[in-house]
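Following up on my earlier message about 3-methyl-2-oxobutanoic acid. Here are the inputs again, as you asked, copied directly from the submission form:
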Amino acid sequence: MSQQPVVRPQRLTVQQLRDMKSRGEKIAMVTAYDATFARLFDDSGADMLLVGDSLGMVIQGRDSTLGVTMDQMVYHTQCVARGSQRAMVVADMPFMSYQPSVELAMLNAGRLLAEGKAGAVKLEGGARVAAAARAMVAAGIPVVGHLGLTPQSVHTLSGFRVQGRGDKQAAQILEDALALEEAGCFSIVLETIPAELAQTITERVGVPTIGIGAGARCDGQVLVCYDYLGLYDQLAPKFVKRFGDLATATREATRAYVREVKSGAFPGNEHSFH
Ligand code: KIV
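Thanks, got it. Here's what our run produced:
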């Protein structure tokens, strides 16, 4: 008896994302940390799922991303890859997994692809990480850059604040974007910079820019899923739009469950085995 092969939708490729920029078609990226949400986001048409080290804050309850480890990133990347079929899965390289040396950066990026099943990795910084990005790309690892407010540098940036406001800082960020493109990054995340600067960068680089707090002229947008779903309220950056209120829905459903357990209304006969 012949068995029909299971046909899975192909994941979005680097080339398809470049083509989207050429066509002026916007790219929708969201963060994801587990298989269940990854499946929902994939079904909803997200083009890229970012396993962000923001999981340190929204999943682990830390006040920054700095404590997230490589093992944790590999684990969450595996979950997201298992739950999705079409979107490209991008895994963040956590703090100190790429800064010390190009060799360490390559080994860790390789783990995220080989063990985590990511399709690409993302690292923060401009010219200073270009050598690591170049080496990864040469080894066949697609790389996304990240400029502007780079949360792993929260202490040197003096907190979560808008970057690139002065001429000198703006010129530096543009120069860094060009350095990342030259190193082979296939996309660049621009976080919390003036919309005008993001527009200039988007026009100057050939690769898609993905904005978060960087205005409407980027080639795509990314938001932390816990923010736009209304699940995380510890920080409320101006650039977040709440597309849902899952915190209220979760509280209401859980209160109803607790009430019914206490009153004995749940489980009913229909939830019981006889
Ligand atoms: O870690 C993360 O979620 C990110 C996005 C905010 C871009 O890097």
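One observation from looking it over: The mean pLDDT is 96. Hope that helps, and feel free to reply on this thread.
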